[in-house]
């Protein structure tokens, strides 16, 4: 997105209601600023590593036991519930009150979800 080069100027008009209008004037004298894109190579490495591990996980998915798939889906469901019900609704919006065992359960699976 290009930087804004307009300035708002207050103009008094001689309209019947004696209103004041704001008019945008373009300042063509200023050249747009040059921005330098800087790569954060540590972040590029981490994001690339996540994708490589994901591809390896897809490969290993065909050689794992059915119990591993069931366990993974249970973890997926519980961590998803903990993000929406725990971190979002309980702690962010304070939408409801929960007793300590439920709070601990939501906290643990929220950590599993890496949120």
Automatic annotation (TrEMBL):
Cofactor(s) listed in the protein's UniProt record: Fe(2+)
GO molecular function, one term: iron ion binding
Transmembrane segments: 40-59, 71-91
Aminoacyl-tRNA synthetase as UniProt keyword: no
Keywords, alphabetical: Fatty acid biosynthesis, Fatty acid metabolism, Lipid biosynthesis, Lipid metabolism, Membrane, Oxidoreductase, Transmembrane, Transmembrane helix
GO terms for biological process, alphabetical: unsaturated fatty acid biosynthetic process
Cellular component annotations (GO), alphabetically ordered: endoplasmic reticulum membrane
Topology versus the membrane: Multi-pass membrane protein
Source taxon at top rank: Eukaryota
Cellular location(s): Membrane
Family: Belongs to the fatty acid desaturase type 1 family.
Comment, domains: The histidine box domains are involved in binding the catalytic metal ions.
Protein name, as recorded: Fatty acid desaturase
UniProt organism field: Amblyomma americanum (Lone star tick)
């Amino acid at each position: 997105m290009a930087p804004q080069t307009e300035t708002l100027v207050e103009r008094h008009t001689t309209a019947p209601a004696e209103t004041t209008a704001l008019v945008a004037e373009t300042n063509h004298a200023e050249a747009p600023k040059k921005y330098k894109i800087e790569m954060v190579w540590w972040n590029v490495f981490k994001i690339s590593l996540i994708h490589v591990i994901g591809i390896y996980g897809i490969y290993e998915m065909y050689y794992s036991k059915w119990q591993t798939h069931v366990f993974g889906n249970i973890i997926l469901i519980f961590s998803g519930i903990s993000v929406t019900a725990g971190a979002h609704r309980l702690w962010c919006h304070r939408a409801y009150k929960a007793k300590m065992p439920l709070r601990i359960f939501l906290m643990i699976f929220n950590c599993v979800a890496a949120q």
